[in-house]
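job 3f2a | input accepted
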Amino acid sequence: MSKKIQTEAKNGFHPGEKLNSILRKNAAGKRQLTRSQKSKIGSWIFLSPSITGVLIFFGLPFCVVIYYAMVNNPIQHVFVGFHNFVRVWENGAFRLAAYNTIRFSVVAVPLAVVLSMFLAVVMESRIPFKSQFRTFFLSPMMVPVASVVLIWQVLFHYNGLVNEWMMAIGQSKIDWLKSDHAQIAIVLLFLWKNLGYNMILFMAALSSVPKDILEVARLESATEMQIFWKIKLRYLSSTICL
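job 3f2a | predicted structure (242 res):
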């Protein structure tokens, strides 16, 4: 060992310097780890209000609902497992409600996406009275939901305005809200209320399409339909998934 030390000393490297360099590297590593830990602690401190709110207003109610779903009633608290779920599934009213909900989702959601996308594309083009059309479709966003429901109840009442129009063209009255035709009124209400909001999202997505790509496509003699399917729809895919 002494020969090694003497050799290192002859070469101009003192053994103490090697030890000091190792200690400095370890100290730097500890300081870096400490900064990383401080950064993580700071991140958790900033996230703690949001996490606390989510746990209180979403996590805790969810656990309470699951607990009461597993007991017979809120007084006795006897654990019954999935017996309550079986009873609900065997209920005809629940099955009818589930069927109506699925049918509404299958019809209304695709219609809302397609129509709002179509309106966004139309609003991006040069058409007359574009601002008036935009105001017409955005106005439902400023109306409270309770007022909208009241207006549509008046419109689709048995003696309402819609039946008056139908009688004017020689058709008989329809009990819209108390028959199988209620689904039509609900879908129309859903579309009228949500088309404006979805249209804004699609218009924002269309404005993010690079203009140079569109110009190159037009220079290559691409039609507007090809531009929409090959270029614009790709940039709208993330908005559609929302």
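job 3f2a | The first helix runs from residue 2 to 10.
job 3f2a | closed
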